[in-house]
Design a protein that fits this description.
The complex is a heterodimer of chains A (349) and B (381). Chain A is built from 15 helices and two strands. In chain A, helix 9 packs across helix 11, helix 12 packs parallel to helix 14 and helix 13 packs antiparallel against helix 14. Chain B has 381 residues and is α/β, with parallel strands linked by helices. Chain B folds into two domains: 162 residues, Response regulator (Rossmann fold, 3-Layer(aba) Sandwich), CATH 3.40.50; 134 residues, Response regulator (Rossmann fold, 3-Layer(aba) Sandwich), CATH 3.40.50. Chain B is 49% helix and 16% strand. Chain B has a six-stranded parallel beta sheet with strand order 2-1-3-4-5-11, with helices on both faces. The longest helix of chain B is centred in the first third of the chain and has 30 residues. Classes of the chains: A mainly alpha (349), B alpha/beta (381). The interface between A and B is large, with 57 and 42 residues.
Chain lengths: 349, 381
């Protein structure tokens, strides 16, 4: 990607004005929209100017960003993971069952959720790599399976303290204070979920662009056949990508569980589409035209600003969806329509 | 070629911006209370003379509004778990009209049944520096820490049907015990002691559990023989429970009456009774009312003989008035249950009532218009 950027830069100097404007739009379009929305809401809404609002907006974005990073990882190897919302929802129920029904401490709930997330990722990988089911179909099926399984475990009921159990007794456990800290705690002035979001963004950026594994993943995404001929065991990297995606979705679920404080069976339902949307928006950041960690996170923050700002402005949720869709279209125009020329020499994507 | 694309892109951005600002602008006036709308809103209320006075515009109330009302709009927030469905739409509509009439600038947050979103929106509402927050439904574990946070910051909180423990919260709900008692009293009069009865209810849902307590008491007190107890809560309550009630009736066709304490359960029960050709032998007792329910009750030969209900729009308005009274320090107590009205098939037939508008005029008590009032309050819903 550094190479790509360099190539682009040398080219910029040689091309006429209108090309430079186009280049600029393709590169900075999403960033410009984000800044524009930020300034718009800062200027028009008192509430938006409060630091607490900004932090709560980032908290909202964190869950979508983390699940979006999972989708991004799957997209890097040329796949897609439609099970992230399902995994996050499953995570909420598993966390609640561990603490409320089995009366365990928060740490065990966290461990259980992460193991489950990685396990679902492995199942995805198995279906895609070994059984050669197309990724979209495999992860869609897995989504249904885990959504159903989660309901089977709890007989379709939300898990909460004092709920009646099949054996006639009542659930004795409760969400522990340390588990609730995941969403409600602060490290210094920064809310914990925002910190997790930042750390994971940096970690995924380093992993995807600064390590051998990450670069190989991009190579597989660009041209799996070439990667295979170069001696790369592409199946292993595919599997790794889906396990990482499952883990990240599980982390998103942990934050959701901590936010809701109850084993809400409807949790995570809206997460899938939002996380795919931010991963797509992220592709057009800096004109990379590739799934990337910073882009996804910026996309999530943009969505956060948009939704929080519109909500504060009193725009009803259905109108918000229209605006959300239009912004997505705009971002896709940047990455697909306007940058068609560049894609030819930037990469094989 | 390329330039046109850029222009198209910029144009799209501009359109987007206009769209944002326009939708913001269109929502603003609705919160800003066009006072001309208030009289029509009040028309079906209990006091026709009052609405006539309201038509003369200006403040029709008996006294001036105390602080913080009177000088500009008072900003409050309403944080709703969901605004979808018949009941909640009517509830929200009534609440908005009352908010306009009182002089509230009410920001409504609708989480669309997403509990994590409701938590985020509650946080935004707290941070937005409003004078008060109304919470309409929500999971206890999700909302209680946030409600505590609001109260700690000195923001009064009025909740509707949220289980809370904080004594500072103003708690409102429709009285499930009252609804069940009213309709079961009719059932007891109709059937007498020792009758064979059926029961369709889905336990595990808080309001249905509260109605169940009353049912068990009535069964005991009247020596009723409960021949069957079926019911489950699903995404299609009426359809799924029709199947269960049908099976139960096949096994026990000789029950004299069935209690199904939620209108979707009642609808399912009615289907089962009709399918078994028992409409003239069995009486069905339900809870809740809507236009669809009225149609079923007033249909020729309908076995649904009585129901108990509140008017959702009236209840939504009363909750908003509770916030008004809380802000002027006029509210006595912290726990309020809105009483239900009994609606019998005979009453509907005698008065020729077939829809909710007619019912609201005929039964003003349905609207809770006498609840949460003060001399400065103009009731609207």
């Amino acid at each position: 990607m550094d190479l790509a950027r360099k190539t682009a830069r040398t080219r910029v100097q040689a091309i006429p004005m209108r090309e430079r404007v186009r280049e600029w739009t393709v590169r900075y379009g999403v960033i410009a929209i984000t800044l524009f929305l930020l300034v718009l809401f800062l200027a028009t809404e008192d509430t938006f100017r409060r630091p607490t609002t900004i932090l709560s907006m980032l908290k909202y974005a964190s869950v979508i960003a983390i699940a979006g990073l999972g989708v991004t990882t799957a997209m890097v190897v040329g796949g897609i993971d439609l099970s992230v919302g399902g995994i996050a929802g499953m995570a909420v129920t598993i966390a609640a069952m561990t603490m409320v029904i089995y009366n365990q401490i928060g740490l065990i709930a966290v461990a259980g959720v992460l193991v489950a997330g990685a396990a679902v990722g492995l199942v995805n990988a198995l279906l895609i790599v070994r059984l050669r089911i197309p990724d979209m179909l495999a992860t869609l099926s897995v989504m249904f399976v885990i959504q159903g399984l989660k309901l089977v475990f709890v007989s379709g009921q939300s898990v909460s303290s004092g709920m009646p159990l099949p054996d006639g007794t009542f659930a004795k456990g409760h969400f522990t204070a340390d588990f609730l800290w995941i969403d409600n705690g602060f490290v210094g002035p920064i809310p914990v979920p925002v910190l997790i979001f930042l750390v994971l963004t940096v970690a995924m950026w380093i992993f995807l662009t600064r390590t051998r594994w990450g670069r190989i993943m991009y190579a597989i995404g660009a041209n799996p056949e070439a990667a295979r001929l170069a001696g790369i065991r592409i199946n292993r990297y595919h599997a790794l990508a889906y396990v990482i995606s499952g883990l990240l979705a599980a982390v998103a679920g942990l934050i959701l569980a901590s936010r809701i404080g109850q084993g809400d069976i409807s949790a995570g339902n809206s997460l899938l589409l939002d996380s795919i949307a931010v991963a797509l928006v992220g592709m057009s950041v800096m004109g990379l035209n590739l799934p990337n960690a910073w882009g996804t996170s910026l996309g999530a923050v943009m969505l956060g600003i948009l939704i929080t700002g519109l909500t504060i402005a009193g725009v009803p949720y259905y109108a918000q969806d229209v605006v959300k869709g239009l912004v997505l279209v705009l971002a896709l125009i940047f990455s697909f329509t306007l940058s068609r020329k560049r894609t030819r020499y930037v990469s094989a994507v | 070629m390329t330039r046109s694309k850029i222009i198209a892109g910029l144009f799209a951005t501009t359109m987007l911006v206009t769209a944002c600002s326009q939708s913001a602008a269109t929502t603003a006036p609705s919160a800003a209370a066009p006072s001309a709308e208030a009289p029509t809103a009040a028309a079906p209320s209990a006091a026709p003379s009052e609405s006539a006075a309201a038509a003369a515009s200006a403040a029709p109330t008996a006294c001036a509004a105390p602080a913080p009302f009177g000088s500009g709009k008072v900003k409050i927030a309403m944080v709703r778990q969901s605004g979808a469905g018949d009941y909640f739409q009517q509830w929200g509509g009534g609440a908005q009209k009352q908010a306009d009439a009182l002089g509230f600038d009410m920001q409504v947050y609708d989480a669309q049944a997403d509990n994590a979103t409701q938590a985020t929106q509650m946080q935004t509402a707290i941070d937005s520096g409003v004078a008060g927050i109304i919470v309409d439904h929500g999971l206890a574990d999700t909302m209680n820490p946030l409600i505590k946070q609001a109260l700690d910051k000195g923001i009064p909180v009025v909740v509707y049907d949220v289980e809370t423990t904080d004594p500072r919260v103003i708690h409102t709900t429709q009285s499930d015990a009252d609804m069940a008692t009213k309709v079961l009293t009719v059932m007891a009069n109709d059937l007498g002691k020792g009758a064979q009865v059926g029961y369709v209810n889905a336990l595990g849902i808080a309001p249905l559990d509260r109605r169940n307590v009353v049912w068990e008491q009535f069964v005991k007190d009247n020596g009723w023989l409960q021949k069957f107890f079926v019911g489950k809560f699903t995404n299609a309550v009426a359809t799924d429970n029709a199947v269960l009630a049908d099976a139960a009736l096949k096994a026990n066709p000789d029950v004299a009456g069935i209690f199904a304490p939620y209108d979707e359960l009642t609808k399912g029960t009615l289907v089962a009774v009709k399918n078994n050709g028992l409409s003239d032998k069995i009486k069905v007792y339900g809870i809740d009312i809507s236009n669809a329910d009225l149609e079923l009750m007033t249909a020729p030969g309908s076995p649904w003989v009585a129901t108990a209900a509140t008017d959702p729009a009236g209840v939504g308005a009363a909750v908003v008035r509770a916030m008004g009274l809380k802000l002027t320090n006029e509210l006595q107590g912290t726990d309020f249950k809105f009483p239900a009205a009994l609606i019998t098939q005979k009453y509907l037939a005698d008065n020729g009532i077939t829809n909710m508008d007619q019912l609201r005029v005929a039964m003003p008590e349905l609207a809770e218009a006498s609840q949460m009032v003060s001399c400065w309050i103009q009731v609207a819903y």
